[in-house]
Amino acid sequence: MIRIVIADDNALMREGLRCIFREVPTLGVVCEIVNGFEVLAQARAGGFDVLLLDLDIPGCSGLELLQRLASETPDVRTLVLSERDAGKHALAAMAAGARGFLNKSTSVESLVAAVHCVASGRIYADGGFTGQRVSQPDRQGACPAHAMLSDREYAVFAALATGCSVSRIAFDMGMSVKSVSMHKARMMEKLGMDTLSDVVRYAIEQRLDAPHVL
Questions:
Q1: What is the reported pTM?
Q2: Which helix (H) or strand (E) holds 117?
């Protein structure tokens, strides 16, 4: 049984999620939370497998909440279920520590699949890497070199920067080793890199939050 904590201040949404999970024998709701501070407290207490989180929950919320969860309770597996557009917010959420991102308009099948995926320790990337990645310009107004990477290439770059192997990345992202190797090659070509040391050095210099991407 996968134990789920629902963190959403909308009572109708919580009821709907309970009804969905009640029909799936492998899933069960163990707790419901209505603000970000309760999320942090429950994360510290443990006793669950997946945190289903609305980014706009009252109190401590959004990317700040994800970052605190990643820092204070790194073992917590958070699946974001939000009204926000995945194309604009998924990569930022994943970089802050989320293990998956779904829009609230998603299908029941996708939701159930995402919960199982995240509970197993993998990344749920359906839609999470399909939108445009937001890049911050430097002080001169120019975007950094990694802004030219596709979302898949950036995800592979970030994982490599943490020391993940190609086979591990393939497993976590549900891709073939061949596909990951292709994204790796394109990424290194675009950034003009020759070795993995170059990847790590660049991530450090740019202060990228790579450890929480995968």
A1: 0.63
A2: helix 108-119
